[in-house]
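Sat 14:20. Reprocessing the chain from the morning session after the first attempt stalled halfway. Input below, unchanged.
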Amino acid sequence: MMDESIYKANLKDFVSKEKAIFSSLPIKESWDSIQWNIKEWLFHRGTEHTLSFNEYKVRVKNIDSKMSYDFGDFTKAIAIYLQRTKLIGSMAIRNYVSICRRLYSLLKKRNECSPWQLTRWHFDEIHQELKAEKYKLLYDAGTRLKVISDVIDKFKLSPLPINFVNVAENYHLYFNYKALSEISDDGDRLGEDKLPSYEAMAAYAQCSNNPINENEEILLRTIDLLIAMGQRANEVAFIPFDCLVEEPKKDDNGKAIQDKHGNPIKNVGIRYFAEKKFISRVHWLADQDILFALRAINRLKELTQDAREIAQFQEKHKRLWKYDSSDLLSDRELLNYLGFVDTYNLFLYLKKNNIPVKKVHPHIKNPLKRKGKTQKQHYYQAGDIENLLYPKLENHIVLRENDKVILKTSDLLSIRFDGASRFKREANTFRILPGRIFLTDINGALGSLPGIESIFERQNLTEADGSKIVMTSHQPRHWRNTLYDLAGMSNVNQALALGRQLLDQNTAYQHPTVKEFTESHRDFLTFNSVSEKIGFLRSGIRENKILGDLTDTYHLIKKKQGVENAESFLATHANALHITPFGACSHDFSLNPCPKHLQCWNGCSNLNLTGSEHEIKNLQNLLENSEKALTQMKMEAEGEFGSDVWINSLENKIENLKKGLELSQLGKEQRLFESGKDLSGTKTKTSSV
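Finished this time. Tokens:
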């Protein structure tokens, strides 16, 4: 019979340590509260800032169904422990708590209530439930189950180790692309469903140039910037008011470029805060996007002036408005702040919220929208209205890092009054509650949220087949990245332009047709003359397409000594490009010949992957032959002097080939062995092939 006291003691010890840490966190609620407001602890840009420790019920928000005392403490301790050990953010913590709530609901069905009663079965059952629900992020959920399982096993909180294994495939909808071999038509695009249709873009242009009212125009101008920049929607929503950055364009010699009138030509950029780590960055606009973006910026400054002034007052004085609490305001005056059809609707709203009428004027009558109807003018106390509405204000601190406030509502370029995005209820706009644009505002306007009238529906615009136009806030990012790729922009510059930290993420946003893809690589692999090949090499170095020591040195000289010295270096040292079946070598063999070019797969620093289809097939064949040779060598060379050296060399080569295949992505050039050695001067064999 199991001794429950052991696991209860371990659980108590685990909870006690995390509870002690909780006391130092900026969370106002007590440990025992069924909800924690974590905005002061873990800031994020969304609207939800609470952790709920109640029983999980699908589509039912019932915060009264508390978890058992033991399991509630366990869940809270898990949240604290994972945040401090993994340094994860608000949304990740919410997901872990959600998994714990699901586990508790399953325990309760079996009349169990304590964490020490959890077994491998409970974890497998939750995983199966999610799979049956067709949960889109099944792999991620499995990963979270695995993490919780490991914590239980590490601190011995259950009689038997959980040892949960995540068997779900790492499948993400965003990276569900067809391979080239699966596309038969040269005109088909890879991942075309990630791009907006031509009809959608044309319809958006019509809407953008013909806004129905000022509230809609605020959204349209925000989406204009989304399209002009290609950034993430939350990055565009957090663009600061003073976002415009200008600097003179310079030629290769560092001299300012002027137009025909002698005026300096300027680069124009928009300052924004990257969604990852909130770093301040500048997105430099392409020339054709400048006027489009400037229109959006200038109009947003005009359209949001009223909301900005009110936000500035509220941020400074911590009050709703300028009126003293004892001031009496007529219902006609209140209609300037509270959006209702007439004074009768306002009267009903205030009555419902227990706001008393302080005075009724016997002689002044307000006309109502209903024909021939009037209502005597009512007066309300400003303090009563303020007490009702001030709690509804969004927190005006919208972006901060630790204890430092970076942006307030009035600092943002895109802000609007509460209710301004509800096009079907335009009268319900409260012109006293300013706030920022949210992701739901943008997606609702673009038609991707059900039940919300889109900008396209308001103007009766549809797809070519008559169906509803549906765009997402992320599609313009795919669209712009594809344009960059087709225009020949290097992967490095694509990542820089779109605020991306990892180059290998570019391919998920590049959607060329098979024909476009093939043509770009035909140019890479075929040359009509030696001079054409050298020209390609030098151009690739200048544009960072060919990576390696030559490129690094060229750009370092250009930065420190000027373009003339850099070009002189290029003319002296960049005189050869060797195309092999397995990649491109940037070493000049005429200066120091390599006895066998296949030695590059023993870690040569000059090797670059081209990403071509035939290169990948050659690598697969070479890996297969090398593995066969290794098997045969191990069987036949046993006991032979020096055989271990040959075997080790071949194993190292196989490992490098596998690395190359893992990194190979169609359409991507990259240096393979950045810290490798230069093998072009090797005098002895190091490979059996």
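Residues 613-636 form the longest helix (24 residues).
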